[in-house]
Amino acid sequence: xxxxxxxxxxxxxxxxxxxxxxxxxxxxxxxxxxxxxxxxxxxxxxxxxxxxxxxxxxxxxxxxxxxxxxxxxxxxxxxxxxxxxxxxxxxxxxxxxxxxxxxxxxxxxxxxxxxxxxxxxxxxxxxxxxxxxxxxxxxxxxxxxxxxxxxxxxxxxxxxxxxxxxxxxxxxxxxxxxxxxxxxxxxxxxxxxxxxxxxxxxxxxxxxxxxxxxxxxxxxxxxxxxxxxxxxxxxxxxxxxxxxxxxxxxxxxxxxxxxxxxxxxxxxxxxxxxxxxxxxxxxxxxxxxxxxxxxxxx
Length: 298
Fold this sequence. Notes:
The protein contains seven helices and 13 strands. By secondary structure, it is α+β, with helices and mostly antiparallel strands. It has one domain: q2cbj1_9rhob like domain (Jelly Rolls, Sandwich), CATH 2.60.120.620. The strands form two sheets. Strands 1, 2, 3, 4, 5, 6, 10, 11, 12 and 13 form a ten-stranded mixed sheet that branches. A hairpin with a 2-residue loop joins strand 7 (about 190) and strand 8. The two termini are about 35 Å apart. The mean pLDDT is about 95.
């Protein structure tokens, strides 16, 4: 089933990248990185817990050091971004993300992260490996979560570098969920007969939405609006799932109306928030347990 980006806040572009290109990038990643010593020992973590500044950033981003031009130069990608964001779009951020298998995680870390709404593993990996983002499932969220006071003027584009099925931490998206506007994380969600019941921040709007699992062959591209709910379950396979995640923003002075403009005009709620989440303490440590995507109650 094809989804209209303007109506659903989500678009399935399909397998537009060649298997040879994706495999070559995966080979480069594996040649440069030995994941045998990925995690800190528990004593090392406890001695100096750090939860801020542990994700990729300029100067510490493995993807920047690899042959990645094929991702951005792909004519279908360029055409689709231009249609969605206008002819002056630009890459806001781009990095590798890895779904880490259960079998790779030490027992203490499985216990530490069990039931967390956001299991970002950056605080627990060795500093030399923090040029990739690592996760072990993340509850439904909007990507505006990382951008206080910024309007929803960007999309997230996601490329599967390897075949992705239900066991390799596929993405789940909630088409149409952007229509309630920006809401604070954790969101007002509950399971409802196989669908996701979602309420707006002020409680005026409520609806039951479809949950769509995004599987696909190597080279598949999806993208979604900054306010579209999405998440992942923990990784069940024995090998990690590595993908490319891009944030692509509309040009500041785009003269022509684009799909993003029409979508935002129809949003019945705020396009930005001064406070986007309430699950972290002052040190950036997750305090909220419970995970709707995994059916773990808060």
